[in-house]
Design a protein that fits this description.
Layout lengths: L9 H10 L5 E2 L5 E2 L2 H24 L5 E5 L5 H13 L4 E4 L9 H7 L8 E3 L2 H10 L3 E5 L5 E2 L9 E5 L8 H6 L2 E4 L11 H13 L2
Parallel strand pairs: 3-4, 3-8, 4-5, 6-8, 6-9, 7-9
Antiparallel strand pairs: 1-2
Helix pairs in contact: 3-4, 3-7
């Protein structure tokens, strides 16, 4: 059966609507359906992006300004972080293997299409950081206490900023590899910020250095 011509069985269309709710609409019977042409275009775009990133990963080309995401779990957070990374001149995003899939429909929606504007690699973060340190990258972590105010911090031309898990922060192994720690000064009414909000503020401040 030629799915590209709209000849989708009902159960297959329902499955696509569940997997890609961003593309779905309600038909007359109240069922969620995905227009076949729209789905095919969306699928091709993701495939092209995947092939581009795989080629990038295979060449091991990583830019000067790197963002490392350590176990980010919320797709909305990941999408927002990707959007901010593009806005504030990050060259490469590296995700730990246990970070949420960046092809998740909620990530695509939250990123507003920005995920197609820079390489996003899924790599072993500990090994990658060790390799970056050999190339004189400065590894920047985040700490609510005992960190340096991001507004006053000196940032090197080659750096990797690490954003940790929403609930647990940066893993202990990664924390030990960091050369520098930053924090965002806040008033006493708030102890911490959402991961995507904190990442966006840090990226903005760093981009203005």
């Amino acid at each position: 059966m030629d799915y590209s011509r709209g000849q989708y069985p009902q159960d297959r269309n329902n499955d696509m609507a569940d997997r890609f709710p961003i593309l779905a609409f309600q038909d007359r019977r109240g069922h969620s359906r995905v227009p076949s042409l729209l789905f095919v275009c969306f699928q091709k775009a993701l495939l092209q992006a995947h092939q581009t990133y795989r080629r990038k990963e295979e060449r091991e080309e990583i830019g000067e300004k790197v963002l490392i995401l350590d176990r980010i779990q919320d797709p909305g957070n990941l999408g927002t972080i990707i959007r901010s990374a593009v806005a504030f001149n990050i060259d490469t995003i590296i995700c730990s293997p246990d970070t949420v899939d960046f092809y998740n429909p909620k990530v695509v929606r939250a990123s507003q299409g920005m995920m197609f504007h820079l390489p996003i690699l899924v790599l072993d973060t500990e090994k990658t950081i060790q390799e970056l340190k050999k190339k004189d990258y400065k590894i920047i972590g985040t700490k609510v206490t005992n960190g340096e105010d991001v507004r006053n911090a000196a940032i090197y031309s080659h750096f990797a900023l690490v954003i940790g898990n929403e609930g647990q922060g940066i893993s202990e192994i990664i924390e030990k590899l960091c050369d520098q720690f930053l924090y965002i000064k806040m008033n006493g009414n708030c102890e911490s910020l959402n991961a995507s909000v904190a990442a966006s503020i840090l990226l903005y401040e760093i981009s203005n250095k």
